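lol ok so funny story. i was supposed to be doing the assay writeup but got distracted and ended up predicting the structure for this chain instead. priorities right. anyway since i did it might as well share w the group, maybe its usefull for someone
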Amino acid sequence: MTWENWTIVSEFILVSFSTLSSELQALLFLLFLTIYLVTLMGNVLIILVTTADSSLQNPMYFFLRNLSFLEIGFNLVIVPKMLGTLIIQDTTISFFGYATQMYFFFLFGAAECCLLATIAYDRYVAICDPLQYPVIMSHRACAQLAAACWFSAFPVAVVQTTWIFSFPFCGPNRVNHFFCDSPPVIALVCADTSLFELKALTATVLFILFPFLLILGSYVWILSTIFRMPSAEGKHKAFSTSSSHLLVVSLFYSTAILTYFRPRSSTSLESKKLLSLSYTVATPMLNPITYSLRNSEVKAALRRVIHRTLGPQRL
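and the output, tada:
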């Protein structure tokens, strides 16, 4: 194909869930809108409570605040556009808009993978080496780990997004997805993308598979340490602080691995959409629920914050 036959693509069309009936799309809109609002309010509440209450000024809640910031960003980048495609059929997105959403998706996604591994390391040190925990997880060390999670994601987002949109597009501009992910748009490229796909797979291994293996290793040691604890109360406390994180990690990584590591032919596009909903919509909502409703410290802190806030009004 010669350059003269290439069509300049100025916008893309997100197929999203347009193949479904209008009634079902309306139900999905209400469902996703509810999840979106719960996610935003829940994560904002986590940030406010863990910042305002002095008893929650420890490494675990410092990383939890960072995770809530990430989840808010993740939702703001993806969900509003998806809601627009469902309720007003706003399926078009500009070339620049697609690249922008993809950039922030890569940024928040890579940072979250690193942060989840960091939280697992924090739990490993707290449970397996509690005497050295204050030294290893000092304020400076926590700040450095959080900064590393955020800044390591920047080059990945920049390189991946810039590389993808340096390719020529032939003209077809229908993207069979509900957000701006890379695999669907790569299918529209009129050039050899094998080198990019190899580099993308390498980045996926580094930012999804490698952190997941680190988390698995951490929890093998954590569980073995918990089972050796003589006190039943100590076992329960140690397991309760780690089980919430393990639940979120299992959902996030299992669906991400199924999405990005399975061969193209083995998974239908509709199945990949459902898997993508898990780590883009469900997991951000589950984080504040699992870390607050199942955490007695957070619930007690929330009661104290509400009491301090409403107390003077009652006097």
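The CA atoms of residues 124 and 221 lie 7 Å apart. The first helix runs from residue 22 to 52.
back to the writeup now i swear
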